[in-house]
Every structure is written in C-alpha cells, then in structure tokens.
Amino acid sequence: MIKILIVEDERPINDLIKFNLELSGYRCDQVFDGEKALCKAFSNHYDLVILDVMLPTLSGFDVIKELQGTPVIFVTAKTGIQDRLNGLQLGADDYISKPFEILELVARVKAVLRRTKGEQNCIEFDD
To answer: What percentage of the chain carries pLDDT values higher than 70?
Structure first.
C-alpha cells in the first residue's frame, strides 16, 4: 500500500488532507513540525511527502534537503515566485498554493505517484 507522510502544522488542514487521501486508498501518517517530519521519514519508508513550508522547528525547505529521493509535494501559503522556484529547485515534484482544492491535490498526488511508482494495479487485504 502507498504510504504518505503529511507534514502540516495546521491540524484542520492536515486532517482534511489525510481524510481525503485515505478515501482514495492511501495510508497516511501525520506530523505537525519539521523535526518530527525528519524523524518519521528516517524511521519509515514513504512513497510521498506532502510538505508545508512554514513549520515549527524546521522549515519545509530545510526538511526537503534531507529527504533525498522521496517525492515531495509542497502545499503552502508561500505563493511568491521566488518561493515556488526555490521549492522546485530543491527537488519538489509539485508546488501547490493555499488555499487549494482538495480534489486537485488528490489528482496531483496520483500524478506524482504515477510518475514515481508506476501504475499499481494490486489490491491489498490485511497487510
């Protein structure tokens, strides 16, 4: 099963993303700051990280530098062109500005996973 780490300090947004991704069949873990994101990412394998930029303890820009090889979608209120370019130059696979449409986020998650994982036509039951 595809595992996604959601790194967003605003709990309602984090919960909204998790709810909708789980409805789409993904397994999601949640963290609310940059340091916990790195701890979680280093102790687990994730197929994708959804990452805010403005986080307590470490910024999303600092976090992505350590993730090496894990696909990342930034979802952030940092909408300036320099922020978007910085995020993409640091290796993000996509950059979505808040406010966002949840259905578009789910579609972008599927697109990134299609590019990075290929088509997954299997159904898992009870691990």
So the answer is: 94
Query: At which residue do the structure tokens 């062109």 appear?
Result: 81
Q: Which residues contact 118 (CB under 8 A, 6 or more apart)?
A: none
The identity of residue 17, as a single letter, is I
Report pLDDT digits (tens) over 8-40: 999 999 999 999 999 999 999 999 999 999 999
Judged by DSSP in three states, 105 sits in: helix
Q: Please state, in angstroms and rounded to a whole number, the distance separating the CA atoms of residues 67 and 82.
A: 21
Let me know if 71 is exposed, middle or buried by CB neighbors in 10 A (0-12, 13-18, 19+). Answer: buried
Which residues contact residue 27 at a Cβ distance below 8 angstroms, ignoring those fewer than 6 apart? 1, 2, 3, 4
Of the candidates 43, 51, 40, the residue with the CA atom closest to the CA atom of residue 8: 51
- Tell me, rounded to whole angstroms, the distance of Cα 105 from its chain centroid: 10
